[in-house]
Amino acid sequence: MRKATVGLLMLLFSVAAFGQPQWKVVKALTLADQIAPIPQTALFTPTRAGVYRLSVYMSGGGGTPGADWDLSVGWTDFTGASSDFNELQVFTGGANWTEHPPSMLSIANGTPLVYEVDAVGNTSGSDYNLVITIEQLE
């Protein structure tokens, strides 16, 4: 009886664990100690429809206060609407960080998710680090 109960519990837990949709990383980018802007760059182009989750972390420091590194991310939604966010900034003059919490989005097939980092002001002597992760719900 005990073996049957343990077997049933294992079966139920495996169905619960493996029968649920899971997030799978489809693209990850990690850039460290960057000292120059990055022009608009395609990061990921989906080959099939799906729901994606985007997470971004950015940190930096050094240089003189009064300037910043600005990150923009853009994509085309399933509906054809242009979508973006450009709210992430890392300031010069001291260590700091920012993040864009995980966000769900849809990206139209065959259209890229792009990113860009701009220097605003005199960023000499400063650097930044950037981590972007894209996951797909499967």
Structure report:
By secondary structure, the protein is mainly β. It has one domain (22-137): Jelly Rolls. It is built from one helix and eight strands. The protein has one helix spanning 2-18; strands at 23-34, 38-44, 51-62, 68-76, 82-91, 96-106, 113-120, 126-137. The chain has a four-stranded antiparallel sheet with strand order 1-8-3-6, with no helix packed on it. The chain has a four-stranded antiparallel sheet with strand order 2-7-4-5, with no helix packed on it. A hairpin with a 5-residue loop joins strand 4 (68-76) and strand 5 (82-91). It starts with a helix and ends with a strand.
Key attributes of the depicted protein:
single chain; 138 residues; mainly beta; Jelly Rolls; four-stranded antiparallel beta sheet; 1 helix; 12% helix; 59% strand; elongated
